[in-house]
Model the fold of this input.
Amino acid sequence: MTDALQALLDKQAITEVLYRYARASDRGDLDLMRGCFHADAVRDEGHTRWPMSEYIEKWSSLIVHPARVVTHSLSNVLVEIEGDTAQAEAHVLNFTRLKKDGEKFDTLTMSRFVDRFERRESVWRIAVHRVTYDWNHEMPFAETWGRGLVAAEPDKLVRGRRKPDDLLYRAARQP
Done:
């Protein structure tokens, strides 16, 4: 029973690393993002492979940009543990608002993280972050909040922001 319980605890710890990575990307929290990876971790997209620390630094200005609109939703998380290593697969549905040549558009992408985790000094972190892309759909920009059905006065909605302005970080400081 002890081995089974430890396996559940390990799987939960690994799953939470994946969720923290998604939160870090969505909220622009670079410290949280860095904490998901071992210092020598790499990002492998098949056509590129480079140190994760360099990847984060290269994209940091975009990750923290206050106007960035992005949401990562993780599902179908499966974790296979073998000693102090594990492989985790997570489906990632990613919504991003982009702008190219002066035109805003929305893009919906389904990808998967196929990550190698390692437990070092009793802590699970990602050692190899692999991304595979399954499909993508682009849409013209239209933010009408359900044509008024979701919010008749959208300017009064509490909107998602980057760290430290997002409700998540403000709520932690409020009673």
In short: The chain has a mean pLDDT of 92.
